[in-house]
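Protein modeling request. Please complete all fields; requests missing the sequence field cannot be processed.
Requester role: graduate student
Desired output: 3D structure, token encoding
Chains: 1
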Amino acid sequence: MPDGVVIVDKPAGMTSHDVVDEVRRRFATRKVGHGGTLDPDATGVLVLGLGKATRFLDYSQATPKRYQAHAVFGITTSTQDASGEVRERSEVPVERATLSEVLADLTGVLEQVPPMVSAVRIGGERLYEKARRGEEITRAARPVTIHSLELTGFSGREASFDVLCSAGTYIRTLVHDIGQVLGCGAHLKTLRRTEAGGFDIEDAVPLADLAARDLKPLSAAVRGMPRMDLDRACALMVSRGRPIDGGDTRAEEDERVALLHDGLLVAVYRRSHDRLVAERVVPS
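Delivered output (284 residues):
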């Protein structure tokens, strides 16, 4: 069974699970997962783990993501993107200076209400399943962080943004909220993820071209995490889940550290005072 990571440039029109199924077929293994869903119409970086790497995908999923988003002002939709039914139209003009002020106000920690058409679970059921039945329920707001929100293009009725945000941020909801603040409404026209899991779009392979040569080592699942190289004796202790001395690692309290031996991932440990304690060990 192959163990490792592939970085796919997801095409529009496929769900993230569709991509998982295709990778399963190409690599002849059932054990494949992804490190963060992309909507069917979105494109860009999708991190997938195979074999033992699936145990570490939540670390990739928790990393900040970067997107290129294109918004249309004056039209709101049922899904907050171009796939939904038009709900309202407005002729309220949008000025570039006003838009820039709104973007500045929406940078930082925000409370975001997830859209009805989303994979968020409420009462044991995905929201999109409720939406298919025509239900709309009250959703609790959740904190998200917009690290940066840059206007990269503007034509009066449409605008493009570069967004760096925390995991779990809905860009279509961010665009919807921008429209609400402006008083004209807005929806997401296109979305492309350009960074995820420590990888950028240049690392991604078009799904049609994906091959065995594109399989990255298991350690790619924890890219960007502080690392510590182990000697053979220490690697043996770590493989058994035993705590070790914190050594020279610069990890802060409770920060995770990737432990490697001869370039291979052995485990992910967590800093606890002057020790490193096991959080997840690569199965033998």
